TrEMBL record:
It comes from the Bacteria. Residues 151-372 form the Radical SAM core domain. SMART domains: Elp3. One of its GO terms (cellular component) is cytosol. InterPro entries: BchE-like, Cobalamin-bd, DUF4070, Elp3/MiaA/NifB-like_rSAM, Methyltransferase_Class_B, rSAM, rSAM_horseshoe, rSAM_sf. GO terms for molecular function: 4 iron, 4 sulfur cluster binding; catalytic activity; cobalamin binding; metal ion binding. The lineage of its organism: Bacteria, Pseudomonadati, Thermodesulfobacteriota, Desulfuromonadia, Geobacterales. PANTHER family: ANAEROBIC MAGNESIUM-PROTOPORPHYRIN IX MONOMETHYL ESTER CYCLASE-RELATED (PTHR43409), BLL1977 PROTEIN (PTHR43409:SF7). This is Radical SAM superfamily enzyme YgiQ, UPF0313 family.
Length: 428
């Protein structure tokens, strides 16, 4: 029997839909890795090429983040109208399974590796259930290497993504990671990860770790980084800004080939940081921390959440000036988005401040709630202007004009963001 693992596209005219450099969906390759022998598996990314609905697969397997849910449902409806069985998992369906079941035959809630083989067995036996939920969390030592060969021919230029940990020990109000994985921080055995990295190195020296916080446990990450030294890797991942306080670990990351980190600064306002649960961030130390990253050869893609209750229209100019003064190699300015399952959604719902449940607008680029310190239009206009200003040629030059090893990544990244923003404005 045949399975088509299908990743839905992003809406055109949106930043993430216009970015030319896209990663394939690692979670689908992880499911393919626990698919029993005897199944013929294939992969398609609707963001890269148009979907062929005449596919001969027996089962269509979808995953989607909230902003992709509308497209996922369109794809599911189209395949079901042709008699196909469609199943769905991922963050959005896990939080709203009843909604998803209006469009698909079955939903997998939470991590899929444990439930997936049972779903396939039930499908073959003609007794597919509407809902599958794993009994507990998978032992990370049992997670096999992702089956990346399904990405061959998909059109992606880069497929070297890997996950070594799941979950995050923190509980930020706006984050959907904790809602999905919980606060328990689980780690794959370092030895297994190093073997997998050796295989990835054969294809490409660049690697992206999709971990939400790769340095949450230094007893794990320090041996991992030490084991990566000498592999010739150039890698990126996610880390909190206070990672800079651990000089030994920061140095080990740089020496192992780290050239960039996605860092959630979130706000320059300490009261806003406390309100959102970002307990480790110290805004007064941001600039010094950023320099310590750079001193170890690590560039920063900073993230600043716009629209927090303490924000006024002045926040945009303040944030832009900080980004340039700190010479952040790249940045994004996501609008606060009340994703299903998050604490911030529960709070804003209780306060009657949700103004849209159009999932396509849950892309961190559109205002879906009523802000406190500014109007909806001021928040939207401020976000749009911040993106254009930060990725102007003048700003790019001021931030990147000094040669630094991370420029090999962040130079193309800045040009990519600039081009996507310009295309987005043209398509709007």
């Amino acid at each position: 029997m045949k399975i088509l693992f299908l990743s839905p596209g992003w809406p055109k005219g949106r930043l993430w839909g216009e970015l030319g450099f896209k990663f394939p969906t690692l979670s689908l390759a992880s499911l393919a890795a626990v698919t029993p022998q005897g199944w013929d598996v294939s992969f398609h990314d609707d963001a890269i090429r148009a979907t062929d609905f005449d596919n001969d697969a027996d089962l269509i397997a979808l995953t989607a983040m909230t902003a992709q849910a509308t497209r996922a449902y369109q794809l599911a409806d189209a395949f079901r109208s042709r008699g196909k069985t469609v199943v769905m998992g991922g963050f959005h369906a896990s939080n709203l399974p009843d909604e998803a079941l209006q469009h698909v035959d079955s939903v997998v809630v939470g991590e899929g590796e444990l439930a997936w083989p049972q779903l396939l067995a039930d499908f073959q036996a003609g007794r597919l259930q509407q809902l599958y939920r794993a009994d507990g969390l998978i032992d990370t030592a049992l997670i096999p290497p992702a089956r990346r060969e399904i990405f061959k021919g998909s059109g992606h230029l880069f497929t070297n993504t890997i996950q070594t940990t799941r979950g995050c020990p923190f509980d930020c109000e706006f984050c959907s990671v904790t809602a999905f994985y919980g606060r328990k921080y689980r780690k794959r055995p370092v030895e297994q990860v190093l073997v997998e990295l050796q295989e990835l190195r054969k294809a490409n020296s660049f690697v992206f770790f999709v971990d939400d916080n790769i340095v949450a446990d230094r007893r794990y990450s320090l041996p991992l980084f030490d084991g990566m030294k000498g592999m010739g890797l150039k890698w990126l991942s996610h880390a909190p800004i206070d990672f800079a306080e651990d000089q030994e670990l920061l140095k080990a990351a740089g020496e192992s080939g780290c050239v960039g980190m996605f860092v959630g600064f979130e706000s320059l306002n300490q009261d806003s940081l406390a309100a959102m649960g970002k307990v480790t961030n110290k805004a007064a130390s941001y600039k010094a921390y950023a320099q310590q990253f750079r001193d170890n050869g690590i560039g920063i893609l900073g993230s600043f959440v716009m629209g927090c209750d303490g924000d006024t229209p002045a926040v945009f100019e303040q944030t832009l000036r900080f980004c340039e003064d700190a010479r952040l190699e790249a940045a994004i300015f996501p609008i606060l988005t009340p994703y299903p399952g998050t604490k911030v959604r529960q709070r804003l719902e209780a306060e009657g401040r949700i103004i849209s449940n159009n999932w396509q607008d849950y892309d961190m680029e559109h205002v879906t709630f009523q802000p406190r310190g500014m109007t909806v239009q001021e928040l939207q206009d401020g976000y749009d202007q911040a993106c254009r200003s930060f990725y102007s040629w003048g700003s790019i030059y001021r931030r990147l004009f000094k040669l630094h090893r991370s420029v090999q990544v962040f130079g193309p990244m800045n040009i990519g963001f600039r081009s996507a923003i310009r295309r987005k404005c043209t398509d709007a």
